[in-house]
Write a structure and sequence with these properties.
heterodimer; A: 107 residues; mainly beta; 7-stranded mixed beta sheet; 4-stranded antiparallel beta sheet; 50% strand; globular; B: 122 residues
Amino acid sequence: DIQMTQSPSTLSASVGDRVTITCRASQSISSWLAWYQQKPGKAPKLLIYKASSLESGVPSRFSGSGSGTEFTLTISSLQPDDFATYYCQQYNSYSRTFGGGTKVEIK
Amino acid sequence: EVQLVESGGGLVQPGGSLRLSCAASGFTFSSYEMNWVRQAPGKGLEWVSYISSSGSTIYYADSVKGRFTISRDNAKNSLYLQMNSLRAEDTAVYYCAREGGGMATIGTFDYWGQGTLVTVSS
C-alpha cells in the first residue's frame, strides 16, 4: 500500500498568516492527490483534487501544488473559518490512503 | 441536494456483527461508485471499502478483508456494510462517501454522510 505522510502534525498560526502543509507519498502517485478539511464532529470536505484543482465553491485562498511524491496545500491568508484539520489522500491505487492529518490551531 | 444518511451503528461485543446502511438521495445513485471510510475516536481517516456503480467490482482495506462485506441496492438507493468478527480496533465513526464522477475526481470523495458510530466493547 502507498503510505502518505503529512507534516507538520500540528500548526499554530494567526488570522492572516500564510500556511503551508506538506504531504509525501511513499511512491509516485502522479497528480492523483486530494486535500480535505475536517472540523470537529463533522464529515470531511473536499477542497482540492488532482493535486491543484479547486473543488467548486472552495475559496481561492486555498491552493495545491506538487506531483510525484511531494505535495503542498497552501492557505494564502488564514481566516477564522479555516481552523480545522486537513488531510491529504492519494487515489493512484484502488487502495485509497490518507495522510495522518494536520491540525491548524489558533496561535 | 445530495444527501447520504448512515444508520445501524451502536454498541456490539467483540466477535459480534453489525450491518450499516447508507441511504442516498439527490443524485443518480446507480451511476456512482461508493465507499466506506472510518475514523477512530481522536484519530485520522481510514478508507475501508469501495464498490463500483454496478456492484461488480469491490475492494477492501487489508484491515477488514475477510470480515467486512460491502454491497449496494441500486433500486433502493442504498449502500451497506456487513461487519462480522468485530474487534475493539474497529471502533470508529463510519462514513459513507460518494466518489467523484469526473475523470479527475474518480477516487476522491466529494460527498459524505454525517457518520454512524460503531463501538466494539464488552
